[in-house]
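Just curious: can you write a single protein's sequence together with how it folds?
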Amino acid sequence: MTAGLWTQQSLFGQQEPPEALLCWLWLAHTLGPASAHAGRLLAWCGGDARLAWNERETPAFREAAGPAAARRAVQPDNTPEAFRPLARRCQALGVQVIPFDHPDYPLALTRIPDMPLVLYCTGDPAWLNAPGLIGMVGSRRPDPYGCQMAAGLGRDLARGGAVIVSGLAEGLDSVCHRAALEGAGPTIGVQGVPIDRTYPASNRWLREEIEAGGCVVGEYPPGDNLAGRNGFLQRNRLIAGLARALVVVQARERSGTMSTVAHAERYGRKIFALPGDIGRENAAGTNRLIQSGRARMALSAEEILEELSLRAAPVPDRQEPPLTETQRKVLACAGSEPKSLEELAAACGMQAAALAAVLMGLELAGRIKALPGQRYILL
C-alpha cells in the first residue's frame, strides 16, 4: 500500500526526499477537509504531493492552495516527517491509508472539486470503485413507515447489484446498511468522525458486519479531535460524491439529509425520493423534492436499477492487477457522455495511438464501452 521507508540520509550525507505517503498526509492536513481548493491544487501539482511539498513557498502554490493553506504549509512544525507517527498508528490499528494516487482511491471522487486528498479505510477498499454505488440517506428519527420502506428498498437494491452507501448513523442510515447485508450485498459506511471511532457507539457491531463484506471510510485520521459537528456535514459530500445516485427515504425540509441532496445536485448525481404521508413532518422534505422536480419519485428498486442500467455485479477480484496510473488518468477523463478518441486524447494529454491501446485494455476489463465512430463512454 505504501512505498518503502526512506532513509533520512543518503550515502553522500544529503537528505533524501520525504516519503510520498507522508507528503500526502502533510498536504491533506495543510489543505484541511472539504477544501474548495483541492481540485485546483491537484491540477497544479499533477497529483504529486512531493512536488507540492517542494514548491510550498512559491507563489504558484499559494495561488493553487489558497492563502490559509499557504500559511500552514510553511509553519516550522508542519512537515511530512511530523506525520510518520500517524502512518505507524494507522498500520498498528489496521487502518488503510488511501491517498489520491492510491489504486483504490475512488475514481468517482476524482471528479468533484472538493475531494479529500487522503481517505482512511477499514474493510476492503476495492468496493470504493464498484460500478453500482447508490447512496441511501434519511432521518435519524424515522417512523415505522420510513424504516419499513428503507429496509425493503435497500434489500432489493442490494439483491439487484447495488452497493449501498450511507452514513453509519442512527436511524435510517443503520436501517439501510442492515438491509444491504440482509440482501447479501456489500455496503459502505462513510464516517463523520475519526476512523478509529464509531458513532454512535451502539453501531460498533453493525460496523464489524459492514467491514466483513464491505468497508468503512472517512477523511479523519485516528485520534483526530478537530472534526466536531462539521465532520458530519462534510461527510455528506462524500456519500453524494461516491454514489452514482442518491435515494432519500424520509427527511424533513430542514435537515442534514438535505445537505447531502445539495451535494448530489452540485455533483450532477441522479436523485430519487420516496413519497410519504403529506401530514407527516418526516416526509415533508422528500415530498417537496418530488414536487419541485429536484428528485424523481422512487416507487421500487427495479425502477432505480433500470434507470441506472445496473445489473448484479460480481465481487471485485482482488487477484487482478490494480489499475495503472495511465489507466486511472484515462478513466478520470472519460465520463457518462460519449467522447471521441480525439477529445479523450486532448483531455488526457496523450497521443491517440497510445490512448487507443489503453482504451482497449479498459474495454476488456469492463471499465469502458466502445461506441460506433471511435467514441467511448465510462461504464
About this structure: Residues 1-14, 312-319 have pLDDT under 50 and may be disordered. The longest strand covers residues 118-123. The chain is about 40% helix and 10% strand. The radius of gyration is 21 Å.
